[in-house]
Amino acid sequence: MAGIPWNRDETLAAFNFYCRTPFGKLHARNPDIIALAQSLERIPSAVAMKCCNIASLDPNQQARGIKGLQKTSRLDAEIWNEFASTPEQVGYDSELAFSRFTKTSLRVSRSVEWENIQGLDKQVVTKVRVNQHLFRSIILAGYRFQCAVCGLPIQRLLVASHIVPWSADKSVRMNPCNGLCLCALHDRAFDTGVLAITPDYQVLIDPDASKLVASQAVERFLVAYSGKRIALPDRWLPDPQLLTRHMQIFDGSIPGCS
What we know:
Layout lengths: L7 H13 L10 H10 L3 H12 L3 H5 L10 H12 L1 H16 L19 H21 L15 E5 L16 E5 H9 L2 E3 L5 E3 L1 H4 L5 H6 L18 H10 L9
Antiparallel strand pairs: 1-2, 3-4
């Protein structure tokens, strides 16, 4: 199908793959790209090119000098902009498209965390579970499967943490700029206000925790990171305004958080 324009469903499937795949693996030799290309009846280099063109729409990639291959289509930009405004619907549609082409089951979270499912119909619950799974994949892939604070690379211990809790604002719960990849410890510290991240991406530790410097665990796992800059993702940088909102939740209990 070389030279044949991509349709919307094909582009959605490629977008889904882009979201879930670390930037360094968006090349034609990647076995997953080869498999997707077979499903789309295209050549691997065409799929890799499509992913790179999608990447070129990301302001974070633009800042790094990624310009795509001069063939970014109107449809690429349309889907990118739709995801920015309605990420839950476009994310779900992209997973449906990927599932149809690859003839695989929808990838879903085991449990529903974003919704009180009592009274919801099966399709709505499925959509939430699909988007939960996709959000985790987007965040972990963007951070190269490492904790943004400490660099822990064990996937089973990593959490796609919301900056503004999903329960506080449903409108940002699927927004990847509202996500951080954190290990279980730093996710819990972030959720409880023991740890904060400033709009310029520096770690702050609650003074009450910092006082416990006699504890080797507190010193090693918390205080040691105070003032350090977090590792930033390859795509969808954390939104400074959302980081400010997170700090405001804790009423300025951490210096610089008011």
